Amino acid sequence: MSLPVSEISRxxxxxxxxxxxxxxxxxxxxxxxxxxxxRNTNIKLGFDNFSIRALGWKAPQLLDYAAALKVDxxxxxxxxxxxxxxxxYLREIKSKASGLGIEIHAGTGSICPSSNTFSKRFGTAEEHxxxxxxxxxxxxxxxxxxxxxxxxxxxxxGGIMARIQDTTKVCKSVRQRALDAGVKIAIENHAGDMQAWxxxxxxxxxxxxxxxxxxxxxxxxxxxxxxxxx
Length: 230
What we know:
Blueprint: H1 5-26, E1 46-48, H2 59-69, E2 73-76, H3 87-100, E3 103-110, H4 125-139, E4 143-147, H5 159-173, H6 175-181, E5 184-188, H7 196-206, E6 211-219, E7 222-228
Parallel strand pairs: 1-2, 2-3, 3-4, 4-5, 5-6
Antiparallel strand pairs: 6-7
């Protein structure tokens, strides 16, 4: 005789709770440090400097903090986190990170010249993305995280597809640079700018050989950002 859905749900929850309680009883050492498990799995744990931007820390301080937390990787999601973009300074940061056993993922903001979020502080969109790729290569980052814009771009002339075309053009202008550097441009679905299928459209149009995505998942205590390939 089949059980009502509500009864099945109650039994499933109770069984899951029992298994969880048993695991805590048998292996309390697994909770000795919140990031301990990352050293024994293929999942790298870390944080985005944006999540603690109010502290105003630069790259060296953030690396020390990451080491104290025993995380595997940090995402420096803006170019202002560095005190300099010179090769000598970036080598120092890379050396410090290596000494601490921490991987760096580099990034920046909008690379769409027609987005309301784009800033000309680092030159044209093409120059901005080229700088980000150079920084990523210098730091040993496999990705150059960036984004198109935000939800307001959907209301702009031509809509989101026009912004996708503009972003694609910028990516194509630095394709060879990215390939030579061994850095993948990882475009984030940011602040409501693109839906999943629109982001895939951008990647397919630009070229999957050097463009991927950073999927952003909202979480209760912050945001989870994971550069990945399509």
